[in-house]
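Problem 12. The chain below contains 462 residues. Write out its predicted structure in token notation.
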Amino acid sequence: MRLQVINFIVSPKYFDFTHNWFSYFIILLGNLCRNAWTIVVPCKASNNSTLKTIIYYTLNKKKIINDPIYGFITIHHDIVFDCIQLPEFQRLRRIKQLGLTHLVYPGALHTRFQHVIGAMHLMDMALKTLRGKGIEISVEEEIGALLAILLHDIGHGPFSHSLEHSILTDVHHEHISSALMQQINAKMEGKLDLAIEIFEDRYPRKFFHQLVSSQLDMDRLDYLRRDSFYTGVSEGTVGIERIIQMLNVRDNHLIVDQKGIYSVEKFLMARRFMYWQVYLHKTSIAADTMLLSILRRAKYLINKDVKLFASPFLSFFLENNFRTEDLQRADVMENFCNLDDNEIISAIKVWQYAEDKTLSELCKMIINRNLLKINVVDQAITAEDVANQKKYVATKLGISEEEADYFVAIGKLSNNTYSADGDSLKIGMKDGGLKELSETSEIYNLSQVNKPHIKYFITSLK
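Solution.
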């Protein structure tokens, strides 16, 4: 809010100070077009004129974002809009939510920016629902929760989860998000203190953190609906509005009212389907594996003093190995905040023509969507299988078996949709009791949703 005070003199004939009530008369004028308010306070001046002081409040106009999933989303608080306008946050416009999944589902080009705005909208809905059920939530707590969910993904690097442990060695995006929130908080003179407490699960009222991160949080509700919409995989569609209406709080922990059990079951099944059909789709896994191999090879060559094209921000990370403790360094955070999908793609387009055959081939394959073959099986890949594939690749491309390692990758896929251990979903029964979800849902008990399903894969040339 900006405050502007304007003083000017007007003739006393317009004001009659013989009546006490008029001495305190306040004229309130609202300029709706400019979203401003003018308060006119008359008082007697020494020169028999009237000194009129106008206090002119200019409020940040309530911003509206038109979202294809939820329609119009209103930004109610100035500080929330201020955070959205930060360069660190605007970077999320240039980071795809699903990495290279658009190579499988062409519509999956939505961004982290869209996701966190949607998650913030769902948080707003959830807080209104809880207030309607008599849960006391202060304005400060509301703003803290909105900021926590808004900034929860600010630490994602290029291509989201695909390169999560590659740009910064074995550093989770949650740690980067915490570091960036602390950095922003310092600029805003502590206005994010409560948001950080909620995000890091240090706030006593635990349900706020559970709305941000749990087995039924606003993050998951949004990305299931959004990813389903943009990929066209209808199995991911869930009744978000119904689920939010069924939320409640007991002993400062988030619960679901008993009549919401079926909606939660649908949510868990949708999540399971989306993992196998979208998030763990074998072609997406092959593309992600190639992307990791490209950066690994580029880093190897640069360490061998081979000159490769890259932006200064990408070069900074290719030339160095940074870990969690390095997040306190200003240069690390500054360069990280200048990285996005465009940095990686621009480099890969140029590296197609690199002298190194391994790097060149991998980059051409990604750019032209001529991806590696991937075989997904139920049994662990043997060392013999790996050795055979390396020999095949080395012979076909005329490279060494050591270089063939960049084309032959093995890994494990795990779909653990729900766990009854730890932060499990609690159901508020009509008799006032609490039960764990698996104790109340017949369909859930009959399914295998709570058991992680593990598969193994190996990549090679076609």
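Discussion. The chain has three domains: 2-58, 63-281, 283-414. Students who got a different answer should revisit the alignment rule from Section 12.3.
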